[in-house]
Amino acid sequence: MEKPFRLTFSNGREAPAIRPSVPTELSVALNQMGLQPSRPILVVVGGASQISEAEFLRIQQLFIKVLAPIAEKLGAYVVDGGTDAGVMQLMGMARSQIAGTFPLIGVAPEGKVALPNQLTSFEDSTPLEPHHTHFVLIPGNEWGDESPWIVHVATVLANGSPSVTVLLNGGEVTFKDAFQSVIAGRLVIVIAGSGRTADKIADALDGRGTDDRAIELADSGLVRDINLEDGFAHLAQAIEELLSAEN
């Protein structure tokens, strides 16, 4: 198994990274990066597209005022897709804005991302988000290849501690992310009112669903929704209680 290596971003920040070839390598590899198991885990999936500027700003505040502060308060690990786009970018920026110290682990298919200071990259490659603290670069050349690996990383690091997936907005890959969490037995909190996939699932939970995948997720018993219109306090309380729960 390849040893961890360091990535250096243009802003001067550095982050360790690993290239596991199979999920069974994760326990040792994550430990080699200094990540200890049995911590509360917050998984963040989805996107931030096809919404108005006002809606985007509200979602941005959700990360700054709720998700990042909860992770900091509980000493939780946050796991997401690691790229400099969508909810991953918002998570990285929120950690920076609150001067957070919690580990932020990005899991991405190496064939789809541009590593910092890389001389060559694929035309459609996406940069990694520079405020993440650790990266897991998994084998894959398509978006969605990372979905089961995000779940594996979260499960290994939780090691029986509370964990929850928060789903905002999102497209096709977000459905795959949600199903992977459900298969692993991890509760998915859907942020209703954030658009696209999140709202399709929320509609299914309310009995108004028309998307078969959303209906299947709603019927799993492992998905619940919280509406942005209800304010941040309700969401913060729900997530904090879930991540503080005794097993």
Automatic annotation (TrEMBL):
Residues 39-231 form the LSDAT prokaryote domain. InterPro entries: LSDAT_prok, TRPM. GO terms for molecular function: ligand-gated calcium channel activity. GO terms for cellular component: plasma membrane. This is LSDAT prokaryote domain-containing protein. It comes from Allocoleopsis franciscana PCC 7113.
